[in-house]
């Protein structure tokens, strides 16, 4: 839940404490205070941001994308632009999507002369197409902008070619519609949107070529987990059905400012082209049941409370849509047992079933009219 902010913001600057005998913080705590005082731009608690500060790590991430001079890149969460400036050196165009206006201002300050979407745009509902040379205009009320000709007075063609390559979109990536066209996605991902980001990318059309994404290490290891390992899960199966995933770089917490409490990893995600003709809602719906307790038998998970009733309702809805007679005396539990016996998974456990096993099981359920969405 967003942190509450004061209703009134004051511009009055507080005097800095002076060193002296009467100041209790002047000597005994000066060392500890110096480590706690930071630039306000790095007060990142609100959005859970951790700025990647290690230039070597930034360079390795960009190199992993194998960028071409013709590539259009989408960067999610550019922060202060440490990755952005390195991407701009190699790509044709970069669209940076940032939720925090302070961070967007920092990116623009580093790469002057760009388009910024801030509010009221026909292209991006909820955003405005403004040409910014002064990045701090982002913090001005939009009503003030309307009373000036500021956004009309800039000469875009005075920008250097490198400056014209960047576009900054201020907003929530998960809710942004439509996404810009891109061939490569690079992201130092805010950890709270890790899963939504992955599935938003996998559902995007047209397909992109590759995504280089940084996640919390535990999440990254679940993405690349294999059947039979402790981390193989519903997330692993759902992602690996549609993409090839590799863990390519381990990143220390000390590479960030402020340091997170966990280690991070960078993964390479390459979508399978063409994508398998499997409806995600169906595949995920079945996995939701059998991975609820992955070390229990598949049949045991189907016996959980409410599962059979849901499957019966889905089956009747599907048969009605297909204009098939709904009158069927066969209990749904009997159909489930029949399918599991025929495919040989009556005693199987989801923790050891691979993608082919899951697809075979889903197809067998569909053959008898059992659906999961």
The span between the termini is 30 Å
Q: What's the total helix number?
A: 13
Globally, the shape reads: elongated
Listing every helix as H and every strand as E from the N terminus to the C terminus, the arrangement reads HEHEHEHEEHEEHEHHEEEHHHHH
How many strand elements? 11
The share of residues in helices is 25-40%
Strand order, largest beta sheet: 5-4-6-3-2-7-8-11-9
Biased composition (Low complexity): 22-39
Domain Ribosomal RNA adenine methylase transferase N-terminal: 57-273
Protein name: rRNA adenine N(6)-methyltransferase
Organism: Leucocoprinus leucothites
Briefly say what this structure is.
This protein is α/β, with parallel strands linked by helices and 373 residues long. It has helices at residues 30-36, 55-64, 82-88, 101-110, 142-146, 194-202, 217-224, 234-242, 280-290, 298-302, 307-321, 332-343, 355-367; strands at residues 51-52, 72-76, 93-98, 114-117, 129-132, 166-170, 184-188, 210-216, 243-251, 256-257, 264-271.
